[in-house]
Specification:
Blueprint (H helix, E strand, L loop, with lengths): L1 H20 L2 E11 H6 L3 H7 L2 H4 L2 H6 L1 E4 L5 E3 L2 H13 L7 E8 L4 E8 L6
Antiparallel strand pairs: 1-2, 1-4, 2-3, 4-5
């Protein structure tokens, strides 16, 4: 009986620690891609770098939401707020393929809650 209580107590303490960690603030640079195209991509990194703005703004693609894919192929799906900001950025971008962005927000391990989303500017050396 005491062992069961100890195991239950430790399990609850561990769960509480995990829950307390919550979301962490991150800053990510990567490429915007709609989730419909990201889900079907064989090479996600290459697809994101060449993904067209016109495709990302198609109704079905925009409805699927957006993700940011980093150069090391990590994918950060956006929350609804981030999806709205991404769609607005895509509509106003002059970039036709491979829209690179800098995103700051709170990442909970599954979704990135966007605070700021700006198009990255490349510098040529």
């Amino acid at each position: 009986m005491n062992r069961k209580l100890l195991v239950i107590g430790l399990s609850l303490a561990f769960a509480a620690m995990l829950y307390a960690q919550g979301a962490k603030s991150i800053k990510v640079t990567g490429y915007l891609i709609d989730n419909a195209c990201a889900d079907s991509a064989k090479d996600l990194g290459a697809k994101a770098k060449t993904h067209s703005t016109s495709c990302a703004l198609m109704d079905s693609c925009e409805t699927s939401g957006y993700s940011v894919v980093t150069d090391d192929n990590k994918r950060y799906p956006l929350t609804d707020t981030g999806n709205d900001k991404a769609a607005e950025l895509l509509k106003n971008s002059k970039t036709q393929k491979g829209v690179k962005v800098v995103v700051e927000g709170e990442y909970d391990g599954t979704k990135l809650d966007v605070k700021t989303l700006t198009e990255a500017t490349e510098t040529v050396n």
